[in-house]
Amino acid sequence: MATLGLNLDEQKAVERFQQAVVAPSRDKLVILDFWAEWCGPCKALGPTLEKVAAEYADKGVLLAKLNVDEEPFIAAQFQVRSIPTVYAIFQGQPIADLTNARTESQLKEVLDKLLAQLPVQGGAAGDPQEDIGALVAMGEQVLAEGDGERAASIFQQIAEIAPEDVRVQSGLVRALIAAGRSDEARTAFEALPEELRNDPVVAQAGTLLELAESGVDEGELADLRKAAAERPTDEQAQFDFAQAAFAAGARDEAADTLLKLVETAPEWNDGAAKAKLLQIFEAVGLEDPWVAAQRRRLSLLLFG
Description:
The chain is of the alpha+beta class. The protein has helices at about 10-20, 40-55, 70-75, 105-115, 130-145, 150-160, 165-180, 180-190, 195, 200-210, 220-230, 235-245, 250-265, 270-285, 290-304, and strands at about 30-35, 60-65, 85-90, 95. The protein has a four-stranded mixed beta sheet with strand order 2-1-3-4, with helices on both faces.
């Protein structure tokens, strides 16, 4: 949480938060409880959080309580709109919302799942590569859930630990694209050494970046969508819309349009629709569930 541009009180609030939450979360799992003195449900939940945190202390879990009346700036940064609000924090990032885990058993169940994935200091030290793999898996899961901003933050954190890991750099580029920050994705990609850029895993992210950079603004996308709807037999209009739709994140529309082109005009422009689909599949990743579903649809058209 940067302090640039903040007033003195806000800077002090950030410093307190860094000391109480961010610093210990570097190798611990911090349960961050947003509460207030006047909040009845907060007082009811508090003892449960304290009991479970104490029981899990030897596993690397600790509890940090933040009074929203005393630290309104930090609560605003987390967009806390009601209390109690409870997050799991690791390496300075919120990785899970624990608010709905109101009983001991519910809270322990969530913590057990998180601790199984994270290299939290508290048990036996794991293999470093396994630790990085767990963090990458966490970032990929957040990215798959559609939260590009949080995924980018996670991958940026991991990149500081493992800058030469191709999985990390690929994840960072893809997360920045998903967050609508293609310029930053381009900067990150081009800053990599040539051997990393040429690695197939990172090169795949580079292909996705090229597709994203071919995008248009919302007004232009709306015009292309309208043109495609009004001229259903105009292959170029369909193709242009599909390409722009994918770059804008509307990949279902893009796939539907390209598959329709493959069905109705497979030879148009030397099979451009199929070629574009295959490029998209490669960029997203052949193991991605969405890609698998679209490949089945394409196979049915070609061979069904």
